[in-house]
Design goal:
The chain is mainly α and 182 residues long. The chain has one domain: Rossmann fold, CATH 3.40.50. 64% of the residues lie in helices and 10% in strands. The chain contains 10 helices and 5 strands. The strands form 2 sheets. A 3-stranded parallel beta sheet has the order 1-4-5. The protein has a two-stranded parallel sheet with strand order 2-3. Helix 1 crosses helix 10. The longest helix is centred in the C-terminal third of the chain and has 20 residues. The chain is globular and about 50 Å long. The structure holds BIS(adenosine)-5'-pentaphosphate. BIS(adenosine)-5'-pentaphosphate binds next to helix 1, helix 2, helix 3, helix 6 and helix 10.
Length: 182
């Protein structure tokens, strides 16, 4: 599971990690954006939260991601990006092998999000970027303690070149694989 502030590199590192492990990559942000873009009734309920940088309420999020989570579990494992983001969501997921925390200062996160040019509504307005950072610190960062207490948290300095971050994530995963195997 990848845990980190907006802009910390979850979406950059996640697909590569999943490919390396041979498991599905699941990004709740991607799933929620796809639902909103599809213009379904559910998507229409989700879209305003995405635009405002607010967390989508847990019941709506679960409606969108439950099926993908179940499929990924059936596949024997997965890399999770952006989920869980609240303690109730963490309870829904249960135990995970390792939580990779991509640690990044808010200043660098702001710069990365403002520079990204992928047409995401939640990157366009500096106020929405600020709100996403506040939401992260208020609602998601408490999960760091939650997983630290369970001994599954590994923190990686995300303020380095993507290849350097990738190498450290790979090393952390290898250590966990050895521990699990041993
Ligand atoms: P989500 O899609 O998860 O977005 P986020 O957490 O805001 O994170 P980002 O995708 O912006 O950043 P990232 O950490 O993936 O970094 P990235 O690799 O893209 O969530 C969006 C919204 O969906 C939420 O606000 C919420 O509304 C909703 N949502 C999602 N999950 C939810 C849940 N579980 N419950 C409720 N609501 C939920 O990189 C960012 C930029 O930096 C890119 O341009 C990249 O090229 C660049 N970059 C990456 N790494 C580096 C590096 N090492 N050096 C320099 N640049 C880098």
């Amino acid at each position: 599971m990848l845990l980190g502030a907006p802009g910390s590199g979850k979406g950059t590192q996640g697909p590569r990690l999943a490919e390396r492990l041979g498991v599905p990559y699941l990004s709740t942000g991607d799933l929620l954006r796809a639902e909103a873009a599809a213009g379904t009734e559910l998507g229409a309920r989700v879209a305003p939260y995405l635009e405002d940088g607010e967390l989508v309420p847990d019941d709506l999020t679960l409606e969108v991601v439950d099926r993908a989570l179940a499929d990924a579990s059936a596949a024997g494992g997965f890399v999770l990006d952006g989920f869980p983001r609240t303690v109730p969501q963490a309870d829904r997921v249960g135990d995970v092998d390792v939580v990779l925390h991509l640690a990044l200062s808010d200043d660098v996160a702001r710069q990365r999000l403002a520079a990204r040019d992928e047409g995401r509504a939640d990157d366009a307005d500096p106020e929405v970027i600020e709100h996403r950072l506040r939401v992260y610190h208020g609602q998601t960062a408490p999960l760091l303690d939650h997983y630290d207490r369970r001994g599954t948290l590994v923190t990686v300095d995300a303020d380095r070149a993507p290849a350097e971050v990738a190498a450290e994530l790979d090393a952390a995963l290898d250590a966990v694989t050895h521990r699990t195997a041993g």
